[in-house]
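Final report, section 2: Outcomes. Of the targets proposed, DEAD/DEAH box helicase is the one most frequently requested by collaborating groups, and we therefore present its record in full.
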Amino acid sequence: MIFSSLDLAPEIQQALDACGYSQMTPIQERAIIPARRGKDILANAQTGTGKTAAFAIPILQRLHDNPKPTLPGNTRAIILTPTRELAEQLADTIKRYAQFLPLSITALFGGVKMSGQQKKLNAGVDILISTPGRLLEHIEQCNVNLSKVEYVVLDEADRMLDMGFIADVMSILQKAPKKRQTLLFSATLSRAVNELAHKLLINHEVVSVAKQNATADTVIHTVYPVEERRKAELFVDLINMYNWFQVLVFTSTKAQADTLMRTLKKEKFDVALCHGDKSQGARRRALADFKSGKIQVLIATEVAARGLDIQGLEHVVNYNLPYLAEDYVHRIGRTGRAGTQGQAISFVSREEERTLDNIERLIGYTIERESLPGYEVGSRESLWNNLAERPRAARTNKATQTKIARNKASAAKGRNQSATTTVKKAKKKKGKS
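The predicted structure is given below as tokens.
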């Protein structure tokens, strides 16, 4: 189905043409029409399938069909998203769709001064994109009034549940009119997401185009068994061997990310970090440089695992497997987007094999193993034998040490008794003489 068949406003169709959009994705085909009719929607689709356009286009069309003056301190639509990066990205994307419409679009997020955002709110906003925490701050300072809100979108609803933001979301929505259209988009349909939908949506329609926790068919998965201490060395060899132009690398901790960055800088790679200890400005510059091709390797923790749209990204590397199997799906969703081919490479030590088993059960198939000569690892049996031997060796060593200590104590006691006996005999002999 093509966008031109929707009979959209000329300004919206012109923007879509300028963006190079012609054919709709499955989620767009199924969500745009009922959303345009005013239905509440619970939409489930895997990452990289065009969810932003699926909720933005019907809202833009409805705002166009029912024009109203922009009121100071008010907004007609709010889009809530879990992270600063996603808020900024959504604003950029939706501004492209609305580039020929007389609408104001603003993003709110932490890490920057409130004053600049306050000025924009005072002027009035048509579409407001925000993280829950920052929007609550502006509400508490009376910078924004939600009584005129007509449209609400919860993007990445499952992620907001995971991050504990739902209490903030509920507080925000209590200040919005009950008579509104609400669209809830989620990469997964868990029990918690369904419960949230029944609390927030009215006579909603469920739109689902993907299996829960499914991965895109356009992504090739590969596992390299490797010892933990040699992962950085393997990564450098693979980049040089296959001449990877751009690589997004996920580590499980900030410390691992920092260590890997130091290693890559020694090898003269252009590399940047994106994790929670970096300032908002530093993270924004790192993402911008990576998207523009100035940076070859971007190292990230889970903060970048959701929603980031990096066009043409071919390679995602799991330097460490995520703690939760579900996070594997979200990490690799950065590649293979919008029908393009991508590759997800995971470095797996023997200690991570149980986590890999969980991931394979979740996605429903066994990932292909590749072995690079020189990086072979020991057998699983030898690992388990070593692990089994450690407690026994420790116990044996402890018992030996205890026995030695007892022998020493016994010998010392014997020497003391012998010395006492000798002294007594000497005194007795002296008395007789």
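The longest helix spans residues 380-432.
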